[in-house]
UniProtKB/TrEMBL annotation:
Classification lineage: Bacteria, Bacillati, Actinomycetota, Actinomycetes, Kitasatosporales
Keyword Cytoplasm among UniProt keywords: no
Record flagged with keyword Oxidoreductase: yes
Residues covered by the TauD/TfdA-like domain: 19-308
UniProt cross-references to Gene3D superfamilies, sorted A to Z: Clavaminate synthase-like (3.60.130.10)
Stated name of the protein: TauD/TfdA family dioxygenase
Native species: Streptomyces cyaneochromogenes
SUPFAM superfamilies, A to Z: Clavaminate synthase-like
InterPro entries on file: AlphaKG_dependent_hydroxylases (IPR050411), TauD-like_sf (IPR042098), TauD/TfdA-like (IPR003819)
Single GO MF descriptor: dioxygenase activity
Biological processes, Gene Ontology terms: antibiotic biosynthetic process
Names of required cofactors: Fe(2+)
């Protein structure tokens, strides 16, 4: 049963810019208010800014993310925007497939604390970047499941191969194996190369972490999203038949290596759904999110959709 907390503020705060506001000037003048709203609520939506093109959206995102970080270990390709670190296209992911609830780079040793999204082109339907409070999700999950993940952590396995998904060269921004091996050694990742030249990695991370400012316990991971049971059944069957059960591009397990069954993965996704907040995108929207306190997803959509994404305030865990 969901545990209610009537004293907690609404997850998504809302601010509205005055008509005709210059986006960069308005954001500069409201940065403190935006950061305070994110700290109090977990996320804030700024509506009404005239972000007429990608360049203005990129500039807006840069204004709010603080120190930008370069993405490493991405699980889907995305395009960087500009020379400064931290601003990208949204992940190139099939429009008809959801990106389930997750925390950005929760499997990495270095994680952005702050995310920003700016809408250049809203989709004709769907495509919501939905949100969920990770503290509420943690409270609502079965205690025995949480305890098991707290004791063992969660294991992520990946298979970077030349035929599917993102290659290791792009994921690690590396040109040779030595660079990748050095990165993995520095970031707690076990890596080995297969006979076809693919890279296989394993990393164990904490599933529950303290918030870096408040210290509150947060369900912080991508256990359900990157698990085989969350994949579309036809996609999972095709990949398994082509590459074998060990050759999926990503999969998750209990930290002791035990597999997750479908019921457990479905349960995690169901708890996320109980706490999901949705706000359809409008042109010019800017959404700023606390990446530890607030999970996010991307729902299937139709039509064109362009969202600029910012990764900011990196934290080495």
């Amino acid at each position: 049963m969901t545990e209610s907390r009537p004293d907690e503020p609404e997850l998504l705060a809302r601010l509205t810019a005055a008509p005709g506001s210059d986006p960069e000037i308005w954001l500069d003048g409201h940065l403190d208010e935006i950061r305070e709203s994110v700290a109090r609520h977990g996320a804030v939506l700024v509506r009404g800014l005239p972000l007429d093109d990608r360049a203005r959206a990129v500039a807006a995102v840069r204004r709010v993310i603080g120190t930008g970080m370069v993405e490493r270990e991405g699980f889907a390709p995305r395009a960087p925007y500009g020379r400064a670190a931290g601003v990208y296209s949204s992940s190139h992911w099939p429009a008809d497939q959801p990106m389930c609830m997750h925390h950005e780079l929760s499997y990495a040793a270095e994680t952005p604390s702050l995310l920003a999204f700016a809408c250049v082109t809203p989709p004709s339907s769907g495509g919501v970047t939905a949100l969920a409070d990770s503290r509420a999700v943690l409270r609502d999950l079965p205690a025995e499941l949480v305890d098991r993940f707290e004791r063992h952590g969660w294991l992520l396995t990946r298979h970077y191969n030349p035929f599917l998904g993102i290659g290791w060269q792009d994921a690690f921004d590396a040109k040779d194996r030595t660079e990748v091996e050095r990165y993995c050694a520095d970031h707690g990742i076990t890596a080995h190369w297969d006979e076809e030249g693919g890279l296989r990695t394993r990393q164990i991370r904490s599933a529950v972490v303290p918030h870096p400012v408040s210290g509150e316990r947060c369900w912080f991971n991508q256990i359900a999203f990157l698990n085989e049971w969350t994949m579309a059944p036809d996609v999972r069957e095709f990949l398994t038949s082509e590459f074998g059960p060990e050759g999926l591009p990503f999969n998750t397990f209990y930290g002791d290596g035990s597999p997750l069954d479908r019921a457990t993965v479905d349960l995690i996704n169901e708890v996320y759904e109980r706490h999901t907040v949705r706000e359809p995108w409008q042109h010019g929207d800017v959404m700023v999110v606390d990446n530890f306190r607030t999970a996010h997803s991307r729902e299937p959509y139709q039509g064109e959709r362009e969202i600029v994404v910012g990764l900011g305030e990196p934290l080495r865990r």
